Amino acid sequence: MAETYPLVLSRHPDARKARLPLFEPLAFGYLALSLGGPVASLCAIYNGLLLRRPGLVIRALVVGLLSAVAFFLTVAFLIGAGMENYRLVRVVGYLVHVLFGALLVASQWRHFRGHRYLGGKVIPLLGAVVAGILVQLALPPKVLLLLLGLPL
User: Fold this and answer.
1) CB-CB contact of 44 with 28 (8 Å)
2) What is the pLDDT of residues 24-83, one digit of tens each?
3) How far is CA 140 from CA 31, 32, 97, 134, 136, in A?
4) Of 23, 49, 112, 151, which one has the fewest beta carbons inside 10 Å?
5) Pairing of strands 22-23, 122-123
6) What does the chain look like in DSSP terms, one character per residue?
7) Within a domain: residue 7?
């Protein structure tokens, strides 16, 4: 009987329950698409701090910085290569952010499952995605480009 518990809990290593609701990790990909990797990494840092996981916080910080740098380098390379369709440049830049959002999802998924397994509260995915889209629509274009990683 005692041997069945480790099998169930092995999927939730050192599970910790946060005191406040956490963002679902899938929200990071959507937020990276709408507002950029740095904003998604701020939400991931929030999760890491509430779960008391310094490794998650550091990973989220590094991913956020790398996504901004990768966006800037991608845009600079495409414009330097002679691409004149700026909408297409922006779409490719958004795809770069989505890849970094996927890294955030992968890094926090196990810890989030442990939080939910212990009965922790969660910020609804739909609410986070809709809020991200509304903020994206409300922001001036220059501020949005700054969030994505283009210095003005």
Assistant:
1) yes
2) 999 999 999 999 999 999 999 999 999 999 999 999 999 999 999 999 999 999 999 998
3) 17, 17, 19, 12, 8
4) 151
5) parallel
6) -TTHHHHHHTTSTT----SSPEEPTHHHHHHHHHH-HHHHHHHHHHHHHHTT-HHHHHHHHHHHHHHHHHHHHHHHHHHHTT---HHHHHHHHHHHHHHHHHHHHHHHHHHHHHHHHTT--EE-HHHHHHHHHHHHHHS-HHHHHHHHT---
7) no
The two structure tokens encoding residue 57: 């916080």
| Nearest Cα residue to 109 out of 4, 37, 30, 13 | 13
Compute the residue count for the chain: 152
| One-letter amino acid for residue 44 of the chain | A
Question: Total domain count for the chain?
Answer: 1
Asked whether residue 128 is domain-assigned, the answer is: yes
Confidence of residue 151 (pLDDT cuts 50, 70, 90): confident
pLDDT at 12: 54
Q: Is residue 137 part of a domain?
A: yes
